[in-house]
Specification:
Largest sheet: 6 strands, mixed
Radius of gyration: 18 Å
Strand order of the largest sheet: 6-7-8-3-9-10
Bound molecules: adenosine-5'-diphosphate
Number of helices: 7
Shape: globular
Strand content: 25-35%
Length: 227
């Protein structure tokens, strides 16, 4: 479903972010991407979203080499990927329901689809009872779960969560990770970038560890630190 083949990326300042980089993620996997700051994790996300292009190599997403994708097809590519970030960007003057409705309207969805999808995605993150709440009435964890729900409106086959628990306490962080696991169990492939040792160790998923633009470990059921 996602494959990098001999990908090189060097930024203009001659910093080599990825060096002959290869990896493959199958449909339905849950993968942790870990590694110190500067290892190349965000570069991977930016390449998948085609915010930047590699200097060399191929990147296959859903069977298509996206390095060859025409510029006019990039918005559709981005809509086909769920994205969750560290900072929850919700509109303060809109309720949970209205926040999700807003993005769906921009995507041109019909009112009936909007209605049924919002219920489904809020159910995924156990927030159906918070539909009418405003962001300031929610905890950080609840706000992040709204963002996760919102990222699922297009039923993406791939969800990338880039340090989604960065601003949250450990218990709440585990709730977020569990919401991602639930989404993964329903068939969505999840790539989670994280520094949270406890989450990685508890969930026992595939761990890909990067350092200086190369994979130093790729282990099924791995721990945060190699034993
Ligand atoms: P991570 O997400 O693991 O912290 P990044 O992918 O952001 O790592 O960065 C990998 C390397 O590329 C780092 O050395 C970083 O300083 C460098 N880098 C990232 N983005 C840019 C950029 N836009 N211009 C120049 N160098 C960059």
């Amino acid at each position: 479903m996602l494959e990098f083949v001999h990908v090189d990326k060097t930024y203009k300042n001659k910093v080599c972010a990825l060096n002959d980089f290869n990896f493959k993620i199958e449909q339905g996997e849950f993968v942790f991407l870990i590694g110190p700051s500067g290892a190349g994790k965000s570069t991977i996300t930016k390449l998948i979203l085609k915010e930047i292009n590699p200097d060399r190599g191929k990147i296959y997403l859903y069977g298509e080499d996206i390095t060859r994708l025409k510029a006019r097809k990039v918005p559709k590519l981005r809509q086909s990927i769920g994205m969750v970030f560290q900072d929850f960007k919700l509109l303060e003057n809109k309720t949970v329901y209205q926040n999700i409705k807003y993005v769906m309207q921009i995507l041109g969805k019909s009112s009936s689809e909007i209605k049924s999808t919002i219920d489904t995605v809020l159910d995924l993150v156990n927030l159906k009872d918070k539909k009418t709440a405003y962001p300031h009435e929610l905890s950080g964890g609840e706000m992040q779960r709204v963002c996760i729900a919102r990222s699922m409106v297009n039923k993406p086959k791939l969800l990338i969560a880039d340090e989604p628990t960065g601003n949250l306490d450990p218990v709440t962080s585990m709730d977020i990770a569990n919401a991602l696991v639930r989404i993964n169990k329903r068939g969505t492939t999840v790539l989670m970038i994280t520094h949270e040792k406890d989450i990685v160790n508890k969930l026992q998923k595939r761990v890909i560890q990067l350092d200086k633009g190369i994979i130093v470990r790729d282990e099924e059921g791995g721990m945060y630190e190699k034993n």
